[in-house]
Amino acid sequence: MDKQYIPKNFAENLKTKDERREHEEREPYSLDDLKKLFESPVYQNIDKAAPETFFIPLISLFSGMRLEEICQLYVDDIREVEGVLCFDINDKMLIGAAIWHARFYLLLCH
């Protein structure tokens, strides 16, 4: 609209439907929350931290993955696609989960 290529913004009042269930809605972490987490003893004493305690919050922070998705990852779910490392979120994660919660995608590793 700024350049006036079209006379009207047809998406101006368009809203997307939030399809999350109530139990899936969460507030994002604040900067203070993140500071508390990453200044915790786990990140101050890296050599004493359990790998899952150290890496799960980092994977979540940089990927946006859900805790349930991260905890179900297998080593072979980390793939290289065109020279870029990705998490392969796939149907192996459906064990014990409801099918309608499934999301299948490749997600970049940072």
Q: What would the keywords be for this entry?
A:
110 residues; alpha+beta; three-stranded antiparallel sheet; 4 helices; 3 strands; 27% helix; extended
Description of the molecule:
With 110 residues, the chain is of the alpha+beta class. It has one domain (29-108). The protein has four helices and three strands; from the N terminus they run ααααβββ. It is extended, with a radius of gyration of 19 Å. The model is unreliable at 97-104 (pLDDT under 50).
Ordered list of secondary-structure elements with their pairings:
Blueprint: H1 31-38, H2 41-44, H3 51-63, H4 67-71, E1 78-81, E2 84-89, E3 105-108
Antiparallel strand pairs: 1-2, 2-3
Low-pLDDT stretches are: 97-104
Distance between the termini: 34 Å
Q: Biggest sheet: strands side by side, in what order? A: 1-2-3
Largest sheet: 3 strands, antiparallel
Total count of helical runs of at least 4 residues: 4
**Measured on Cα atoms, how large is the radius of gyration?**
19 Å
Number of domains: 1
Shape: extended
Describe, in short, the structure shown.
The chain is α+β, with helices and mostly antiparallel strands and 110 residues long. 27% of the residues lie in helices and 13% in strands. It has one domain (29-108).
